[in-house]
Design a protein that fits this description.
The chain is of the alpha+beta class. It contains eleven helices and ten strands. It has two domains: 3-169, Sandwich (Jelly Rolls), CATH 2.60.120.280; 180-275, Arc Repressor Mutant, subunit A. α2 packs antiparallel against α3 (144-161) and α6 packs across α7 (205-216). The longest helix has 19 residues, at 220-238. It is globular. It starts with a strand and ends with a helix. It holds the Pfam family HTH_18.
Length: 279
């Protein structure tokens, strides 16, 4: 049985920027707003990230940079009698700005990069990642001075081996105003607050609600529920999947709420789709 854990980072100053995860069984974390640039090292098992359009797979030994301001679904799986183990290093904007000042780094290029970027390693980076795992299991993780020094060490090594990622890490621009319809159609299944959708489309909350009503004719919350239910109806009609298998993937937190909303819109509960010969 997959385990569901919702994870959200909400502060620019991260309390524990180094985190180690271990799962003995398959784990689905659902959706997560990636607020900070995150260095992800796959110790064992596999990690699949899905941004609503493409999947990004990281296997044992994989090292990736997950860009900030992304909506992602996480799937963690152990492999070949080994638990799922991963190391995450979160790089806050405050830390990156300070690092850029110290190293006199300036970014001018506006190149476009994918949400997940594979990083190259060498012997020095391998040794560094092993040392960070030791810190993650010790009390030293609570010492901000030591942790800050480890973050700087890692970033220097990464930039030496992957200089192109400076264009990502030290670009401090905020999301710009983008087309609402295409963005919402691509991301309606992510269970995040309305103000997060507003930010990612380059709008204040008030501007987002105003523009949304003009574009779709209804408030965001009402549209999201209706759109998710339409997708649920399509899946239940065309596949053998059940409500319990799809409600989380479509942005609903609670199976009971999903079932009641579905019945209210279509007149029958999700299970009734099978009785009528659908699926």
């Amino acid at each position: 049985m997959a385990k569901f854990v919702a994870v959200r980072l909400t502060k620019n100053n991260i309390q524990n920027p180094i985190a180690f995860s271990c799962y003995e069984q398959n784990s689905r974390e659902g959706e997560n707003y990636v607020e900070h640039h995150t260095l992800q090292f796959q110790v064992t098992g596999t990690l699949t990230l899905f941004d609503g359009k493409e999947s990004y797979l990281s296997q044992k030994g994989g090292f990736q940079l997950v860009r900030r301001n992304q909506l992602m679904k996480f799937f963690k799986r152990p492999e070949k009698n080994e638990p799922f183990q991963s190391l995450s290093i979160y790089l806050s904007l405050d830390f990156l700005r300070s690092f850029a000042r110290e190293q006199a780094i300036k970014v001018e290029s506006q190149a476009v990069y994918p949400p997940v970027v594979n990083l190259y390693k060498n012997d020095l980076l391998d040794s560094y990642l092993q040392s960070v795992q030791v810190y993650a299991h010790s009390n030293e993780i609570q010492d901000s001075a030591i942790v800050n020094a480890k973050l700087k060490e890692g970033l220097l090594l990464i930039l030496k081996r992957n200089p192109e990622v400076a264009q990502i890490l030290f670009n401090f621009s905020e999301p710009y105003k983008i087309d609402l319809q295409s963005f919402m159609e691509e991301n309606f299944m992510f269970n995040v607050q309305i103000d997060r959708f507003a930010y990612l489309t380059g709008r204040s909350l008030a501007a987002f609600k105003r523009d949304f009503k003009q574009e779709f004719g209804v408030p965001p919350g009402r549209w999201l529920t209706k759109r998710r239910l339409e997708e649920a109806h399509k899946i239940l009609s065309g596949t053998h999947k059940t409500a319990s298998e799809i409600y989380i993937d479509l942005g609903f937190e609670d199976l009971s709420h999903f079932s009641h909303a579905f019945k209210r819109q279509y007149g029958i509960p999700p299970s009734g789709m099978k009785d009528k010969g659908f699926g």
